[in-house]
Backbone:
C-alpha cells in the first residue's frame, strides 16, 4: 500500500459546506460524511488540523454592509465558527476520531484557548485539532486564519475543500464554458482575482511557500486522494518533496 505524501495537513472548510442542501445551519448527514472522509486520512497516520468558517450561521461582512459595526459583526461571525467547530468535534468523536477544539477567543468551558505548542502536541499525539474563532481579530477572514495556523503548526499544505472541483476562470455554476486550472502561481491568483482565498491569505502563503490545493469536498474520498498524492482539483504554488517518515 502506498503511503501518504503529506505528514501534516490543514483542511480549510467553509461554514457553507456544513449546511448541505438546506441553505442554512448544520446538516447532520454532511457532518457524518466529512467525519468519515477525515477518518480515512486519520487512520493513515496523517496529522490533521482544521479551520472552519461560519457563513452557514452568520456572515460578518454581509451584516456590516447593512449597517452593523464591522468589528461587532466579525466577532459574531467568529462565534459562529466555534459553533461549527463543536459540531465537527461531536461528529468526529462519534466516528472514533480523537479531537480537540481550540478557540482564538477564550471560552474555556467549551474549548481550549489557542496555544501553538499545545496544538502541535495534540497533532503529534494523533488528535485532530479544530481551530475556531478565526484569528480572534476582526477584519481578518477564516482564509487568513487558515494560512496563519498552517504556518504556525508547520503544515505541509492547505487543503481547501469547496463545492466545486477546483479553480476556474469564472463561476462554473453560472458559466458552463468556464475553464478549470490544474495549476496556478500565487501571483496569477492575485492578478486575476480568482477568489481561491482572500488576498491576505494568498500573500501569506506566497511569502512562506505554502502550497494550496483546492478540490471538491462533496466527492467521497477526495481528501484521501489528495493526501495520497493524486492530482485532483487545482494546485496553487509548488509541492515540496516531503514523504512520510
Residues:
Amino acid at each position: 500500500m502506498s503511503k501518504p505524501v503529506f505528514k501534516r495537513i490543514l483542511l480549510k472548510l467553509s461554514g457553507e459546506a456544513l449546511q448541505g442542501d438546506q441553505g442554512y445551519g448544520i446538516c447532520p448527514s454532511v457532518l457524518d460524511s466529512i467525519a468519515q472522509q477525515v477518518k480515512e486520512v486519520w487512520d493513515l497516520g496523517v496529522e490533521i488540523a482544521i479551520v472552519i468558517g461560519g457563513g452557514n450561521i452568520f456572515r460578518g461582512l454581509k451584516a456590516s454592509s447593512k449597517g452593523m459595526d464591522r468589528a461587532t459583526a466579525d466577532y459574531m461571525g467568529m462565534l459562529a465558527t466555534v459553533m461549527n467547530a463543536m459540531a465537527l468535534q461531536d461528529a468526529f468523536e462519534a466516528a472514533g476520531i480523537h479531537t480537540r477544539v481550540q478557540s482564538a477567543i477564550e471560552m474555556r468551558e467549551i474549548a481550549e484557548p489557542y496555544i501553538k505548542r499545545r496544538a502541535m502536541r495534540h497533532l503529534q499525539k494523533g488528535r485532530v485539532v479544530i481551530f475556531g474563532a478565526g484569528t480572534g481579530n476582526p477584519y481578518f477572514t477564516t482564509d487568513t486564519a487558515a494560512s496563519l495556523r498552517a504556518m504556525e503548526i508547520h503544515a505541509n499544505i492547505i487543503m481547501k475543500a469547496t463545492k466545486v472541483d477546483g479553480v476556474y476562470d469564472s463561476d462554473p455554476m453560472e458559466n458552463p464554458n468556464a475553464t478549470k486550472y490544474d495549476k496556478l502561481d500565487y501571483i496569477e491568483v492575485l492578478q486575476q482575482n480568482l477568489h481561491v482565498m482572500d488576498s491576505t491569505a494568498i500573500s501569506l502563503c506566497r511569502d512562506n511557500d505554502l502550497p494550496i490545493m483546492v478540490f471538491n469536498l462533496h466527492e467521497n474520498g477526495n481528501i484521501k486522494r489528495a493526501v495520497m498524492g493524486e492530482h485532483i482539483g487545482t494546485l496553487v504554488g509548488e509541492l515540496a518533496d516531503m514523504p512520510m517518515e
